[in-house]
Write a structure and sequence with these properties.
Order of helices and strands: HHEEEE
Strand content: 5-15%
Number of domains: 1
Helix content: 25-40%
Mean pLDDT: 89
Distance between the termini: 85 Å
Strand order of the largest sheet: 1-2
Shape: elongated
Length: about 160
């Protein structure tokens, strides 16, 4: 007389270990891809914010050149601060004396390390009188740049974007 044994269902310990090792390998190879993707997203945000700020600075300068904003002799025509782009400047040609606004708010540098800093303080500012190689703040804001010491995926420091 033969005894019938029930067939066993499930996985052996070896099969489970192999599956876990394969899963760990897949996840560890995906982590660098996720880091690059996150960095690329921050870089795109940095480019967009730099474009917005520089466009607003150029629009302010154009408004000065067109006579929509008063300029005193000796001034460059660039805004004295980034905050003035948000606060607005009175238009002397408008009979109602409405303000001209260039930005709704100052964007934040996505690579700024200190979350307590106000948005304006996250940017480096270069005055019209300073050189490109050694940017320095002054009486006006001619250009903005990131204060981050990091390098982008294109191997160019963010300060030079």
């Amino acid at each position: 007389m033969k005894q019938c044994s029930k067939p066993s269902y499930g996985f052996t310990l070896i099969e489970l270990m192999v599956a876990l090792v394969l899963l760990a390998l897949i996840l560890s190879s995906a982590a660098p891809v996720m880091q690059v993707t996150a960095k690329r997203a921050k870089e795109q945000e940095l480019k967009r914010h730099l474009w917005q700020l520089r466009d607003a600075i150029d629009a302010y300068k154009k408004a000065v050149d067109d006579g929509l904003i008063k300029k005193t002799p000796g001034q460059s025509g660039y805004p004295p601060s980034l905050q003035i782009l948000v606060q607005g400047v009175e238009n002397p040609r408008d009979p109602k004396k409405r303000k001209i606004h260039f930005l709704r708010s100052i964007p934040r540098d996505p690579f700024a390390s200190d979350p307590e800093l106000p948005n304006e303080a996250t940017w480096g500012k270069r005055s019209y009188a300073s050189s490109f190689e050694e940017p320095a703040e002054g009486e006006d804001v001619y250009d903005v740049y990131s204060l981050s010491g990091d390098t982008g995926l294109n191997q160019q420091p963010y300060r030079e974007w």
